[in-house]
Protein 1
Amino acid sequence: MADLREVMTRAADLLGQPQWGPLFQDLIGEARHDPEVAAALNRRFIAPQTANTLARLKAAKVQGQLAPDFDLDLAFEILSGPLYYRLLITQQPVTHAYIDRVLHALFAGLSPRPQTR
């Protein structure tokens, strides 16, 4: 989880900068209409970020930190979705605390807990 937090906070810090966040938002909008922009955005930002995150998830799986049947691609989408939702839809800041909440929800918060009385 610490490795994923590092990757996610670096991306959030970059996109939180006034010169990068709006540019990235504009590029995503333009990519919907221009295949060349979409390919360049994917090649320069999306694919490397995806590969880095999936590599960290795969390493955790090999080390036994994740269940053997843990769906890495789905986990990546679950991790990315809330960040892009904030960046592109609600335009709320993607803070380190928010990233911690997302990671906790994925790795701990969704599992059942024993009932205590």
Protein 2
Amino acid sequence: MSGKAIDESIKLKRAYESPAADDGTRVLIDRLWPRGVKKIDAGIDCWMKELAPSTELRKWFGHDPARWDEFRRRYAAEIHAHGDELDRLRDLIRHGPVTLVYSAHDEAHNDAVVMREILLGHR
């Protein structure tokens, strides 16, 4: 698979957006289930809690953009500590499009952005 095809095969989507036919495998990467979202409506194929930021890191970050760079560094370290789950996610991507589903309001500063960077080899 070429780099561009891999880029396009990993999408990001908020849990509050409706599933779409082109989402492929929908993977929730948050530790907590999105508030107010019914499981039947979410269309989640796989919930990878182990790859979510730790509770401590999530609370420390608090979605504060001023802490973004340090959050990215710490979260990347946590992700790499779960190599088996990361390999499992990479395997899903090899088999077709994957949408990383997250619940944060900030679309630029959240765990899914960091996860995508790691999967694309940017971190």
Protein 3
Amino acid sequence: MTAVAGLQTVLSVPNRFRGPEGTANGGWIAGTLASSLTCAGHESAVEVTLHRPVPLETELAVEHVGNTVTLSDGERHLVEAIPVVMGSGETLTPPPFVPFTDAARAEAGFPGRHGRAIAGCFACGVREPGDGLRIFPGPVEGTDLVAAGWRVPIGVTDENGVVPDSIIWAALDCATGWAHYSSEEDAPQPVESALLGRLTGQVFRRVYPLGRYSVVARPVGREGRKLFGVSAVYEVDGTLVAAAKATWITPRPQ
């Protein structure tokens, strides 16, 4: 983000961090705004609401007002992020840990491998190794979980060699959607795909390039057009790295 004046900055989302065609990956943009809040001293979870798709390669205004940060395209309000106040010791409730080998094995059942809704997605699309995250969550046998073994590419670090929180949020994002489509039979077609509406997340530990992590998610309900899911990133020993809960919105019936 480039500073402009006062508490306003300009953000242009590189094409690399795309989600649906022509728009930003929801988890990446959520994590980018959440990071600007945590850098300002808010260490709690952050709730990010995506009101409209975020265009790529476009100068967008990021504005801090009190404890809120917003993203706008001219007069169009796109995204809003706010810190979430939790009680003492309270955290997001993540899905249970799945060992890396089991998570990697689950990838064979990823329902989006054939005819996926968002082929070029930064998080779950089949991109060139090192370009996208290549997180392919598939069903974990005997559970209601989906999981993937995440092998963190070197090319996602910042200028200091650190994997930014925006990358971790991107990893948390798509798995919560795929948790509702855990087989080839119910995998969404492009016109039926849900879009991320809200992502509340918190990062507890760093992720390291070339590291191996388990990304785990489960569906936790549905209400009308809304799909709810939770996700987590774990180290190989089961240490929780990050957790999130998501709301996805399905298209209106034709």
